[in-house]
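Re: that backbone. Tokens:
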């Protein structure tokens, strides 16, 4: 592998991180920032590539955690935001721009009748859970073990559980995510396993009297980017309907799977959706949408709604025009391009794994993918737990990619963007192939 000087963090990034440690508790303001061994500071993004403060250029497979589906500096978004900011960045009144983005989304997504904008995916999930509670009068929430849904206590439960804590496979433990999480929160969360039909049905039925909602990511990203079995999808739809449990489809990340989103692609029939990331064109955004009868809890003109939901920057015109420009450009042709690139890259990675008989597998769909240091393709969260040797292998892979000018997320979904080309796919495949050839000593000890 040719070392282009990317492997060592540059002196300018090191200098900035030294400054940051004086004012931020851990040197950054986001726990999700990757360090190698310290963060790489970026100064510019254009198309599918970013440049760091030391002048090094990288193919970006992170895309700000899958947000930038059109890459960096997408001209329709730049033009729309520049025009709007001259007219005003935010108001205490509605604008026509929120109508236009809302109409696009409601027209596109089956089952989304009404919609409401907020500022982040976390807020969208938070208000969706509250809406389910307000609608059903029940307090508890069911969620998939290991799935990530943002920073709301009830959906953080069992987000980072592991072999030492996840408990009985028939009845997974409710594991606190942070020190000091109230025990009352744990009592109000039922953890179920993805693609495990019998256990999911049994736990939903057992707790139906207190469950407001089942929140489910159609392809749980943090839990392995694993696709759902059709039988599991059918069971979730039928069981929740029978028991009067609101299905919340968290598509904040996975909405990029197709023109109508992930639920439509995989057959889920949610009552509510949560959206974010790509619908904001690179600006902060979140949205809750779904059936009118449930969305009505946010109010229909009465003085105080059953569930009040404000937000100083919700539906701000900058996010609205950026999102409209981004989503308008995401037509069927754009999704077909992304699907083709994703299929080609996953096929190339699997080809290299087979050629070298390496202990790896690949998951993902459409423009998303994830590499696992395991021969067996995972079916659920418990399958992706890494040994120390496997963790070291993935860290080495991330460093090797950086050494050849590719930013590959470690332990999260990688994503493609519309400006990427066949040449970019070849670059990633070549880097991975060379890694397998030159680093086999790292994974010879992996479990079979």
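Recovered sequence:
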């Amino acid at each position: 592998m040719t070392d282009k000087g990317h492997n060592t963090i540059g002196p300018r990034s090191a200098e900035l991180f030294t400054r940051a440690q004086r004012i931020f508790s851990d040197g950054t303001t986001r726990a999700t920032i990757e360090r190698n061994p310290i963060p790489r500071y970026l100064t510019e993004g254009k198309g599918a590539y970013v440049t760091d403060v030391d002048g090094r250029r990288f193919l970006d497979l992170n895309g700000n955690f899958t947000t930038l589906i059109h890459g960096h500096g997408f001209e329709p978004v730049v033009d729309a935001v520049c025009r709007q900011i001259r007219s005003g960045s935010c108001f205490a009144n509605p604008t026509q721009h929120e109508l236009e983005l809302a109409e696009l989304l409601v027209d596109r997504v089956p089952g989304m009748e009404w919609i409401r904008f907020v500022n982040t995916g976390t807020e969208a999930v938070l208000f969706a859970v509250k809406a389910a509670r307000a609608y059903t009068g029940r307090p508890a929430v069911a969620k998939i073990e290991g799935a990530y849904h943002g920073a709301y206590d009830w959906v953080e439960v069992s987000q980072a559980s592991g072999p030492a804590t996840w408990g009985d496979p028939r009845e997974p433990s409710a594991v606190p995510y942070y020190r000091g999480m109230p025990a009352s929160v744990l009592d109000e969360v039922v953890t179920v396993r993805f693609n495990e039909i019998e256990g999911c049905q049994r736990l939903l039925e057992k707790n139906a009297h207190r469950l407001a909602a089942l929140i489910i990511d159609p392809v749980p990203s943090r839990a392995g980017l694993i696709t759902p079995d059709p039988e599991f999808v059918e069971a979730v739809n039928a069981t929740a309907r029978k028991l009067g449990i609101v299905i919340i489809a968290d598509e904040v990340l996975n909405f990029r799977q197709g023109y109508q989103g992930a639920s439509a692609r995989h057959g889920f029939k949610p009552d509510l959706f949560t959206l974010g990331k790509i619908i904001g064109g690179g600006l902060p955004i979140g949205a809750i949408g779904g059936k009118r009868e449930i969305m009505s809890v946010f109010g229909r003109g009465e003085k105080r709604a059953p569930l009040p939901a404000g937000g100083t920057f919700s539906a701000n015109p900058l996010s609205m025009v950026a999102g409209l420009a981004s989503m308008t450009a995401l037509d069927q042709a754009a999704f077909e391009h992304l699907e083709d690139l994703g299929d080609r890259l996953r096929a190339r990675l699997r080809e290299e794994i087979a050629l070298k008989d390496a202990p790896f597998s690949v998951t993902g769909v459409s423009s998303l993918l994830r590499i696992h240091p395991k021969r067996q393709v995972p079916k659920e969260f418990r399958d992706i737990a890494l040994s120390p040797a496997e963790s070291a292998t993935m860290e080495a892979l991330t460093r090797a990619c950086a050494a050849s000018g590719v930013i590959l997320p470690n332990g999260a979904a990688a994503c493609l963007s519309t400006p990427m080309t066949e040449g970019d796919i070849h670059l990633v495949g070549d880097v991975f192939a060379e890694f397998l050839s030159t680093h086999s000593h790292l994974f010879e000890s992996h479990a079979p």
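The chain has a mean pLDDT of 95. The domain at 75-329 is CATH 3.40.640.10 (Aspartate Aminotransferase; domain 2).
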